[in-house]
Amino acid sequence: MKNLIILTLVLFTSCSLSAAVDVIVHPSNANAIDAGDIKKIFTGKAKSFADGSKALPITQADGNPVTDEFNQNVLSKSSSQLKAYWSKLVFTGKGTPPEEAANDAEVVSLVSKNPNLIGFVSKGSADGSVKVVQSF
Amino acid sequence: MNNKVLLGCALCFAAFPSFSDVNISGFTSINAGKVLSGTGVPHYGINEPTFLADYPIVSVYNEDITFKPESLFGLQVTADVSEGLSATAQIVARGADDFNAEFEWAYLSYEINENWTVQAGKKRLPLFYYSDFYDVGYAYVWMRAPADNYTWQIFNYNGVNALYTGSIGDWSLSGNIYFGREDDKENKLLSEFFFGEPTREIWKDIIGGVIQTSNDWLEIRATAMSYTNQRYIGGEPSTWNGKDERDGNFYGLAVNADFGNFFVLSELNRLDLDGNLDTAMLTLGYRIDSFTPFVSYSTFDQKDGDDGEDHNTTSFGIRWDFHSNAAFKIQYDEVEDNSYELAVAGDSKAITIGVDMVF
Q1: What's this model's pTM, rounded to 2 decimal places?
Q2: Using an 8 Å Cβ cutoff, are B179 and B194 in contact?
Q3: Could you tell me if A7 lies within 8 Å of chain B, comparing CB atoms?
């Protein structure tokens, strides 16, 4: 019990110290995408970009610091709050959570090959194959 | 919930849109509890202190500690066929039913476009805010949705549902319209708790609508539903004012506000069924890292007559998100049952603990 509490505290502290987040799309995606759009796409409230093309969000694995940072800074939710939010939608047939990638490299690789995808990576992980639309 | 199996396929998805997949997810709650003290209802044969933790499933706690009343295990299987068509089934095994697994949901879903989805089959009747995900304890803060409010006899229906999602500026907007009926051959709540003999409960010509809007911190849900009720107690049709059926109308309003750490949940409902049955709920909670302490008050009040059904519950508890997929909860409930003629389970003080998980 005590160990768990300490672990929780350590995890919490380490999250707030981690680096910034870049939101990336395919280079051909010319839409203006602001923080509000990103929030809607990643919470299933919007399913397309401004030009009407389909928007498919990709998240990262739970334990990755960048995931916690994105959830906190962009979605304003802890990972448990977000999981509770999605379980409410999943088990009522109202929504499906984003697909999950293992790490930054996988997100970059997937996004670079599909104009419908939108993902987030640790600052500095994006290369020329993708376009950074927002940083947090 | 976790699509790891499919991860490698995010790509194939895009490349081969006809690819279909089966996704399995689930939820479970292992809860235990006991009544600390209570009156029972001696004039109706309930001689020991009793806490009715939820009505439809008839989760009853007495003075001996027990794990069965509210523990459950649910599995959801969704097959995405392609082009917006999917089939979903949810199978739930409840301790209150000796863990006999039952199909609770089984429906086809077709996404017509970005805004509209049509679903047909067996679904949860979306009367209250928490009706749809009543079984998924992980999705809310308490041990259970407040019992005084969720006193429905019928909680599934067979029919058609049209679902809308959209947005207006910063507000997201969703809603649904549904039609259907339910014929519950042996209704658990009425048979076991109220009438003491097999009761068949029919809700027909169900028609209802829900509209829900939310922004960053505020969420408002309004709903209305009407139905016609028929009932057979021990095979004999019940009559009301000489007729063997009666009409019911349900109205509900829920408002939730989230100020970051502090949040407020509220619900106000009225069922007009030969008179008004009013229910209300207010919960205040505060998040401190992974801990969420909360206080809650809920009430049920039958407006007509001198001694209508009248009970309320005051609750305190803590939710602790000790794991990314699981939460531990502890809750104290104090129930006041004020009616003699329509007493339900009497006054009680009870404590329940549990772990809710999603996977």
Answers
A1: 0.88
A2: no
A3: no
Chain B residues with beta carbon closer than 8 angstroms to that of A7: none
Model confidence pLDDT, tens digit, residues B323-342: 989 999 999 999 999 999 99
* Partner A, chain B 19-38, Cβ-Cβ below 8 Å: 25, 27
Give the pLDDT confidence of A39-58 residue by residue, as tens digits: 999 999 888 999 999 999 99
CA–CA dist A111, A113 (Å, integer)? 5
**Predicted local confidence at residue A21, as pLDDT:** 96
pLDDT reading at B64 higher than 70? yes
A30 HSE (CA, 13 A, CB side): 1
Give the Cα separation of A52 and A31 in Å (integer).
10
* Range from A111-125, B18-32, B120-134 carrying the lowest mean pLDDT: B18-32
Question: For residue range A91-104, what is the model confidence (pLDDT) as tens digits?
Answer: 998 888 999 999 99
Is residue B118 within 8 A of residue B66, CB to CB? The reply is no
Alpha-carbon dihedral sign for residues B178, B224, B300, B237: negative
Query: Is residue B136 within 8 angstroms of chain A, CB to CB?
Result: yes
Work out the number of other CB atoms within 10 angstroms of the CB of residue B255.
16
Q: Which pairing describes strands B246-258 and B262-272: parallel, antiparallel, or unpaired?
A: antiparallel
Nearest residue, CB atoms, B107 vs list A87, A91, A93: A93
Per-residue DSSP letter, A93? T
Fold of B113-358: Porin (2.40.160)
B289 in contact with chain A, both atoms CB, cutoff 8 A: yes
Percent of chain B whose predicted confidence (pLDDT) is above 90 = 82
Report the length, in residues, of chain B: 359
CB-CB: which of B3, B124, B139 is closest to A87?
B139
What's the pLDDT at B266?
98
Taking the Cβ of residue B135 and every Cβ of chain A, the question of whether any pair is shorter than 8 Å is answered with: yes
**ipTM value:** 0.87
B254 touches chain A (CB under 8 A): no
Going by C-alpha positions, the residue among B41, B7, B34, B281 that lies closest to residue B142 is: B281
